[in-house]
Amino acid sequence: MSIAFDHSYARDLPGTYLRVAPDPAPAPRLLALNTPLAAELGLDITEAEATAWFSGAALPPGADPIAQAYAGHQFGGFSPQLGDGRAHLLGEVVTPRGRFDIQLKGSGRTPFSRGGDGKAAVGPMLREFLISEFMSAMGVPTTRALAVVATGEEIWRETKLPGAVLARVAASHLRVGTFQFFAARGETAKVRALADHAIARHYPDLAGAEPPYLALFDAVAARQARLIAEWMGLGFIHGVMNTDNMAISGETIDYGPCAFMEAYAPGAVFSSIDHQGRYAYANQPLILGWNLARLAETLLPLFDPVPDRAVEIANDRLAGIADRYRAEWIGVMRRKLGLVGEEPGDAALADDLLAAMEGADWTLTFRRLADEAALRPIVPDFSRMEAWLPRWRARAGDGAEGRIARANPAVIPRNHKVEEALSAATAGDLAPFHALLAAIRQPFVEAEPFILPAPTGFGPYVTFCGT
Hints:
Helix content is 42%, strand content 13%. The protein has 17 helices and 11 strands.
């Protein structure tokens, strides 16, 4: 078949990208095809087509590959030019659910590569497939993997690894860093064009809003606050919350050194490059506000032509981010605790649980709240939990056990299982990958052996960005 590509980004935003073709894969081999996602997009793709089109071996008819320009604050330091250094946007597909990018990742060098090889390895690409499918199953806004294709070439990281390309689907690849690229150059007209494109694509209800760009900022802030609250509820640590990894659409994007926390520790960090803990678990809500401040800076000329007034407007909006996030987080915690309705003491109940469960397995603690006998062995100091549980039972009332089971996953992509699957796949055995994928696509089903924490001796766990 062919894919009915459209190219609104390239058409509407000249000067924000470079045309460049992906590298042809010498010996492509399909590792994983996301047939449910393909069906959602209305794509009836054969395995042969997926192997050729999503490896760079051949371009699908109608594709017009581009590399998008963007900048970004990386661990707090500003890089004025980043861009797609190993990715090619093939085009967009329009479905009843909306417009979606199809992008190749790991598909070769572009003018934005900055000395990199433009390639990706099998392990990191399959990691993105696994984690994004779990997020999708949990209803968390996310980019998704359409396919992973081994290229038949070897790449060098710490050692020699088999190469692969990921075909990624996203509502768009507009990032905070996209706005920063042009704002840093004083190109206000392009910033305005990006904002208009974002409104038309992601927030069409704002088309008639006055002022539209302040409404856009508010809408992005609302989606991001909701997204980070969902991450926190799952114990998810993104690992690299740079501004170029914050999507204007409100989707989770770029699953590099990400991981799921097992033992609850607010300072948990897994990324090999996060030496200062900037993106630690408990810091993610703070970085939400920091990244949104960087977005607001790019939009200042659109908020008001008078700089002092624009700054005042932005600061007023930014002052409300923490409360917005806190409200979203409390909503997530009410759901996880099986609470019905809203009561003034709910926030304290959630906060006190976190104090009582430090060191306990995050996922199992919530899953077992209604079963004290099963809960006791996993909480290091049960005395505080023992005092907390009667408060929770009184607030949760009848039916809490069922509500908890429906809200809290039994299966998450536990780090030892992810590593087991990726190591096997790198060596040529995809069976553990597909077994884990099947389990995380049904996260509320207690599937052995995917529900228990890592065995003694696993760790300390360290993740890498894959470049």
